Amino acid sequence: MSTDAKQRPVYVISVAAELVDMHPQTLRLYERKGLIRPGRSSGKTRLYSERDIDHLREIRRLTQELGVNLAGVEEVMRLQHELDDIQDEFEAEIERLEGEIRARAQTHALPSSQDAVTDPRDRPVYVISIAAELVDMHPQTLRLYERKNLIRPGRSSGKTRLYSERDIDHLREIRRFTQELGVNLAGVEEIMRLRFQLEGTRARLEHRIGDIQQDIQSRMTQWRELPSSGSGTVDSESDTQGDVQKAETL
């Protein structure tokens, strides 16, 4: 199913509730909590999409199968909505770039993407004893969280664990969920899995957009260097169609 089809609001609340085996009042509660974001018809009737149905099933899995409390579910769904939004933004950016190709804006060069620069916050610098002190945890707790894949420290050439500023932020978040919000370990695992997925997805999409921008920049340079003859125009149109097809396959 395409992304647009999954986002199309089609189910009234009674049908959506039946599909996920919940009471309609439960869906209204989840909406007030920001866990679900149904659309509205012109008459203000709630309409749920396939994506909303997927989210509701995920909420049921978290609460009924994993025993995650509402605070944990709220964080999981916040991250899920962020993932949805970044995917939508990426698709919108692809459409914009396709428009640039079709228009063949030869007088305005797109900014060339720069080589990816490692975020300083990802640089592994803290040994486990310092990291544990910074987050007020025992080093053994950090080792447990690593085995649970809640944290992913780097390694020195000698295989010593080294934690980054981002790792420290993640550990503080884990402590907040467990100590302040009472989220169980299963819930924290879901939250951190989505957090890693969100960060990885954002990095991959930004890299792909950069690649597309570089390709367009190169093509536009080639177009400017083409002779202004009839045959050159035909070739340029052919290249344009090929670039659009390439962007649509990404």
Give a structural overview.
The structure is a single chain. The chain has 2 domains: 65 residues, Multidrug-efflux Transporter Regulator, Chain: A, Domain 2 (Orthogonal Bundle), CATH 1.10.1660; 130 residues, Multidrug-efflux Transporter Regulator, Chain: A, Domain 2. It contains 10 helices and 4 strands. The strands form 2 sheets. The chain has a two-stranded antiparallel sheet. The chain has a two-stranded antiparallel ribbon with strand order 3-4. A hairpin with a 5-residue loop joins strand 3 and strand 4. Helix 9 runs antiparallel to helix 10. It is flat. The two termini are 16 Å apart.
Quick overview:
The protein is mostly helical.
Helix % is 55-70%
Number of helices: 10
Instruction: List low-pLDDT spans.
Output: 105-117, 231-238, 246-250
CATH class of the largest domain: Mainly Alpha
The total strand number stands at 4
Most strands sheet: 2 strands, antiparallel
Strand order of the largest sheet: 1-2
Share of β-strand residues = under 5%
CATH architecture of the largest domain: Orthogonal Bundle
- Our measurement of the CA-to-CA distance between the termini, rounded to an integer number of angstroms, reads 16 Å
CATH topology-level name of the largest domain: Multidrug-efflux Transporter Regulator, Chain: A, Domain 2
Oligomer: single chain
The assigned structural class equals: mainly alpha
The domain tally reads 2
Shape by Cα distribution: flat
